[in-house]
Amino acid sequence: MRLLREHAPADYADLPGPAAESTLESAERRMNISLPQELRAWLLLNNLDPDEEDFDEDVACSGFPGFPDESHFFLGIRSMEQLYGNHAMPGGINPPDQRENPFWRNEWVPFLSDQDGWAGNFVDVRDGRVGSWRVGEITSTGEYESLADFFDSVAHTLTKIAAGDHPICSVADGRLVWM
């Protein structure tokens, strides 16, 4: 977030702020999981849910547009919970007959998505590893050892953008501009 503040201050200024501890606890109860510490720490600093008047119940996912890339965004706790609810299944695995290679496990909490909720990244509450899903494709687990490793890759991308070394993104008027 420091890099976003330094290199895209107008985008940074649009961030809605932290989640309340009580909001996280309520979401955990409804999802029947405990959020991993790294995800909890992120949300306590950056809950990217839109304001109540801007929240659109008809949109599958909402978050901070244009970051970390042009087609995905970090989710706020409401969108995490909503998308989690769309994927979670009784018995914990979807589809239930593919225990070794499921599309979704209830232990996975989405934190990044496209607007339709068809693709994104999740953190596994069992071990903190980060994976990705895309509807119609095999889900990938363990792409990053932790959420911190994932954020390190985002920081690396922001550093390249700020240096003018990114092929499809630049900064103009304090905002990330995707081409």
Distance between the termini: 22 Å
How confident overall, as mean pLDDT? 87
Order of helices and strands: HHHHEEHEEEEEEHEE
Structural class: alpha+beta
Biggest sheet details? 6 strands, antiparallel
In short:
This protein is 32% helix and 24% strand.
Explain how this protein is built:
This protein has 179 residues and is an alpha+beta fold. The chain has helices at 2-7, 9-13, 21-31, 37-45, 77-87, 147-162, and strands spanning 63-68, 73-75, 93-94, 104-105, 108-113, 119-124, 130-134, 140-144, 169-172, 175-178. A hairpin with a 5-residue loop joins strand 7 (130-134) and strand 8 (140-144). Helix 3 (21-31) runs parallel beside helix 5 (77-87). The longest helix has 16 residues, at 147-162. The model has no long low-confidence stretch (mean pLDDT 87).
Q: What distinguishing features does this structure have?
A:
alpha+beta; two-stranded antiparallel sheet; six-stranded antiparallel sheet; 179 residues; globular; 32% helix
Topology (elements, then pairings):
Blueprint lengths: L1 H6 L1 H5 L7 H11 L5 H9 L17 E6 L4 E3 L1 H11 L5 E2 L9 E2 L2 E6 L5 E6 L5 E5 L5 E5 L2 H16 L6 E4 L2 E4 L1
Antiparallel strand pairs: 1-2, 2-5, 3-4, 5-6, 6-7, 7-8, 9-10
Helix pairs in contact: 3-5
